[in-house]
Amino acid sequence: xxxxxxxxxxxxxxxxxxxxxxxxxxxxxxxxxxxxxxxxxxxxxxxxxxxxxxxxxxxxxxxxxxxxxxxxxxxxxxxxxxxxxxxxxxxxxxxxxxxxxxxxxxxxxxxxxxxxxxxxxxxxxxxxxxxxxxxxxxxxxxxxxxxxxxxxxxxxxxxxxxxxxxxxxxxxxxxxxxxxxxxxxxxxxxxxxxxxxxxxxxxxxxxxxxxxxxxxxxxxxxxxxxxxxxxxxxxxxxxxxxxxxxxxxxxxxxxxxxxxxxxxxxxxxxxxxxxxxxxxxxxxxxxxxxxxxxxxxxxxxxxxxxxxxxxxxxxxxxxxxxxxxxxxxxxxxxxxxxxxxxxxxxxxxxxxxxxxxxxxxxxxxxxxxxxxxxxxxxxxxxxxxxxxxxxxxxxxxxxxxxxxxxxxxxxxxxxxxxxxxxxxxxxxxxxxxxxxxxxxxxxxxxxx
Length: 448
Known about the structure:
Strand order of the largest sheet: 3-2-1-4-5-6
Oligomer: single chain
Radius of gyration: 24 Å
Order of helices and strands: HEEEHHEEEHEHHEEEHEEEHEEEHEEE
Structural class: alpha+beta
Number of domains: 2
Shape: globular
Distance between the termini: 55 Å
Strand content: 35-45%
Number of strands: 19
């Protein structure tokens, strides 16, 4: 894997080759990564996966025509050939009046913020094996656990660099450490599965292996005795480990491409209340050690923290340069891309601000409802907002969690769900999208 300095040098050369071949403008992206993953099962090593790779991508513009190519061969002569091929392809592409690099005057100038994404630690396979074994041992020690699907520990590092023909050059590296375990529990002929995992940038922030293992075992055992519910309308509470999926549907609906294609259920909602006044949602690309932190976006624009939802109101779209031009707006620093193809749009670290009530108080006011810890399937219509997904979790009865629930479907419309959503005060930052416990009133649960 190239150093960031070497990667930026290759990108600069590639952009120069493209201009020499006849491109009016170009940008190039480098992505390199290496990782080690160790998996154990029933106390024995099952496999060790080690990988290392790097790719480079080039996007060229000839007038309003563009083309993208990518390669893993980074030799100078190969890059020259790649540039010539890209320019030839662009000459045959259809015109797109919205295509082009990001506005030059909006590019990030100077060094970006230090986001503390790389701890420089790359554990060897032996230490990863010990971590995975510790997690599995702790999980299998939980009474009621009958079998193991295994535990794994991984570590890796990635580097991203970007260069454009109109003056941007930048790059950053990030480390990653994770641990996970998945267990089976059995009682009276019924089997249930659950697990736990944790992923961080810095090793010293990773949960203890024993903590993750014990949580995986306890979650599996807690699901024993699961049964269906009687169908009907009821409040549904989303555990923080699944609450982020609701926010994911919002992020897809406010992405620039969905708006330009008119395929969003929030098409007419800009500047309007989408949630209740108690809901504020932030996008923070500068969170130190954040899982999606980044100093610049996929087009070289600076990133910045902003509220996507402010006291319930939708404040704006997430725009790359192409969708911004189509909507006659400015790009927002949300462009995201891989080495192949043009940029898309992505949020960074997103979280719902905590509410005033505790989780127990949120649940305590519910006579009969559903507490969801698992969602199954993808039954969501992004155009209409219709929502229907399989779910599992626990019955809420008289303000407390009762027996586990499985094989039910929860349904509603995201517009109504968002308006009827409230948040507890138990926000923790563990994922890319973080929420407190969320309550959605008036959903339909289909069971028996």
